[in-house]
Design a protein that fits this description.
By secondary structure, this protein is of the alpha/beta class. It has 7 helices and 10 strands. α1 packs across α6 and α2 crosses α3.
Length: 213
């Protein structure tokens, strides 16, 4: 779910402007999964630009309150969601915790870092949703310790059906500031890509595992 079309296009514009997202349909990237991809996304780049960082932080904060109400704590997903989550917690005057992909193998062996109490309402902050797997692992880790996960907010989603289905199965609502469709719309408008590129980019989204295999 996208909260606002104009703001979604603005976030997409910023991601393209600072090269947090790169589109290369003719020279694809290879993901860890082995998929060929015309897009590479690293939203952490936005943290280096104060005006953009502020804009995104404020949108995250608005999304948290509008969609889920004010929680007791904000949780970031390691690693991309940690910085954004801390910024949102600061904006809203809330405690912050973060969730590792797995428990530490030393020290206290924590998977969740920071102070929390059972029963507290939590909104999760993530930077990127692809299949949704890593986000949902974090959500389940929070639930396992008795936290009430109200939902998740991310900067960007590719919009894969598998992610939508996984979040439904885990009974967790999520919203994003922008998505793949808005991104390629903005990229065409700003002439980062051509109409021919647009066809290839849409084909990838429909069948990413087989695209240019």
């Amino acid at each position: 779910m996208i909260l606002n079309t104009d703001k979604a296009l603005k976030v997409a514009e910023f991601l393209l402007q600072v090269k947090a997202v790169k589109l290369q349909p003719n020279l694809p990237f290879t993901w860890a999964s082995g998929w060929n991809s015309p897009i590479y996304c690293d939203n952490r780049v936005t943290l280096s630009y104060p005006a953009i960082r502020t804009f995104i932080r404020q949108l995250y904060s608005e999304a948290v309150i509008e969609q889920f109400g004010k929680p007791d704590v904000i949780a970031g997903v390691a690693t991309g969601g940690i910085a954004q989550g801390a910024l949102v917690a600061q904006e809203l005057g809330l405690p912050f915790i973060y969730v590792r992909s797995t428990a530490k193998g030393h020290g206290m062996g924590n998977q969740i870092e920071g102070h929390y109490e059972k029963g507290q309402k939590v909104v999760v902050i993530e930077d990127l949703i692809s299949t949704g797997g890593s986000s949902l692992k974090a959500i389940e880790a929070l639930r396992e310790v008795g936290l009430d996960v109200r939902g998740l907010v991310a900067t960007f989603t590719y919009g894969f059906n598998v992610a939508e289905e996984q979040f439904r199965q885990h009974a967790c609502k999520f919203v994003t500031l922008t998505n793949y469709d808005y991104l390629i719309e903005e990229a065409l408008k700003e002439e980062y890509i051509t109409e021919k590129d647009l066809i290839s980019l849409r084909e990838w989204k429909e069948n990413p595992s087989e695209w240019k295999k």
